[in-house]
Inverse folding.
DNA sequence: TTAGGGTTAG
């Protein structure tokens, strides 16, 4: 492959060629087979665009992987960074780290790519320790570095460090839109909405959509719905802003503005945007308009896992477990050929739908399919949902068996939510002996949720252990734990 | 030549 072949690969990615997916894939295959024969093809100008193109064609990944690992140590920084980024996007953290570790020269962009890699995996603490390493090693920061570090701080609610980064940005005169947008996100995630407004006020952002949207999102997250509407009204409509609008309506259960926003989305031609359409489905569902939600779902051209999960959740939460289950089966049938499969959130919605409609066999089938069919390890939230389902259906033995496995195998999964589900199951089935064991576990976990105390206290009262019940109530008063208004699911 | 700000499901 000659020098300059990178631009040829870049042309493959031009918008005009995107409609010719098959042709593009064929060209990429050709590039790859040549590269396998001649190492020269891994030159810096050719390989990065090829790797970027691979994001759209996972079928090329395994060959690329073998090829890249073979030459990883000799890669040009740009090529290595593109490779690291590709691994990161595919969730292959180990491979990404290997590429990074073997890089003889790391520029700030390579470090930034590593930060993004951790953040994509939800490893905010690793991102922050990498950020500290950059500081110690004297690596130059870019806007993307600060932005990534702020994202990590937001996710860990690391207020102090985030504020230090803000101070550093001010010291260095960094008032870029990227840094400011990340600052708004960081402050909003930490509940410091006024700081978010202050950052926004200090930026000249007349024409920038992202920073407006960031502030709208900040208002939504902090339940400042009126202000969110007001900023929405003053900004130019774009797909992300409208998606935020639907989110405001969902969270405030106010479909009035949502219908207008829906019309605006159609008028502006945003109705082919899957993310936006998913928000529409959710908005109608949360506002109780299930048939509109279904209609909006059916009209989505390219459904993704969120589209399916939203509609399954919609039916489940409205007590239509059978339809939720049918949709889940339909998803499996129709979408597996498109490489689309349910994820952990989908299974939570399915389990909850089954639990609320007494679909025990279906719930069990989905719980075991998670690991056996899809390779997803059920988390504590899935286990507690399944235990809850079994308890409601009177299957206390099966629930107890699963609970026992969780407490023996991995104590990490024995969360207070799991204990609460098991305790509810014991109470509903009048199994006081087992309930007492679970109650002990719950106390050992040191849970500070007042609802758990009330549940425990009621449990002891039901068992005729009045002294125990009273002492728990006392402990609750002493610790000044108060039951939240409206939080009566356990009592 | 590689990274990088705002949006959707629990």
């Amino acid at each position: 492959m000659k020098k300059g072949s990178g631009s040829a690969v870049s042309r493959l990615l031009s918008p005009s060629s995107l409609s010719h997916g098959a042709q593009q894939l064929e060209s990429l295959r050709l590039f790859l087979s040549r590269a396998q024969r001649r190492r020269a093809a891994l030159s810096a100008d050719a390989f990065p665009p090829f790797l970027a193109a691979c994001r759209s064609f996972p079928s090329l990944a395994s060959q690329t992987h073998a090829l890249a690992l073979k030459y990883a140590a000799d890669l040009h920084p740009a090529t290595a960074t593109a490779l690291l980024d590709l691994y990161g996007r595919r969730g292959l953290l180990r491979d990404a780290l290997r590429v990074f570790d073997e890089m003889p020269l790391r520029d700030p962009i390579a470090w930034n790519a590593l930060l993004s890699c951790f953040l994509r995996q939800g490893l905010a603490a690793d991102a922050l320790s990498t950020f500290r390493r950059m500081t110690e090693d004297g690596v130059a920061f870019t806007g993307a570095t600060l932005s990534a570090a702020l994202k990590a701080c937001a996710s860990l609610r690391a207020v102090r460090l985030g504020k230090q980064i803000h101070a550093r940005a001010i010291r260095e005169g960094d008032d870029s839109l990227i840094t400011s947008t990340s600052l708004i996100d960081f402050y909003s995630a930490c509940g410091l909405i006024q700081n978010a407004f202050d950052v926004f006020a200090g930026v000249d952002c007349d024409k920038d959509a992202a920073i407006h949207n960031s502030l709208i999102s900040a208002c939504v997250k902090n339940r400042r719905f009126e202000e969110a509407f007001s900023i929405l009204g003053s900004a130019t409509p774009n797909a992300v802003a409208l998606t935020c609008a639907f989110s405001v309506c969902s969270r405030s259960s106010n479909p009035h503005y949502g219908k207008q926003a829906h019309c605006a989305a159609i008028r502006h031609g945003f109705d082919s945007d899957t993310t936006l359409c998913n928000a529409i489905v959710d908005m109608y569902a949360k506002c109780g308009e299930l048939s509109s939600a279904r209609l909006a779902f059916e009209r989505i051209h390219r459904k993704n896992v969120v589209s399916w999960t939203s509609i399954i959740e919609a039916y489940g939460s409205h007590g239509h477990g059978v339809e939720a289950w049918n949709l889940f089966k339909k998803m499996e049938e129709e979408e597996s050929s498109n490489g689309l499969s349910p994820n952990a959130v989908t299974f939570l919605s399915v389990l909850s739908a089954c639990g609320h409609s007494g679909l025990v066999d279906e719930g069990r089938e989905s719980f075991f399919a998670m690991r056996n069919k899809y390779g997803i390890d059920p988390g504590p939230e899935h286990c507690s949902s399944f235990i809850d389902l079994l308890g409601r259906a009177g299957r206390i033995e099966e629930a107890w068996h699963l609970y026992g496995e969780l407490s023996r195998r991995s104590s990490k999964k024995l969360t207070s939510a799991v204990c609460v589900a098991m305790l509810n199951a014991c109470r509903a089935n009048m199994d006081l002996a087992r309930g007492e064991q679970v109650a002990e576990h719950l106390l050992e976990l040191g849970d500070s949720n007042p609802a758990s105390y009330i549940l425990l206290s009621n449990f002891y009262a039901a068992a005729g252990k009045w002294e125990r019940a009273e002492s728990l109530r006392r402990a609750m008063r002493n610790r000044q734990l108060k039951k939240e208004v409206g939080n009566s699911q356990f009592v």
User: Anything to note?
Assistant: Residues 21-37 of chain A form the longest helix (17 residues). The radius of gyration of chain A is 26 Å. The mean pLDDT of chain A is 86. Chain A is about 70% helix and 0% strand.
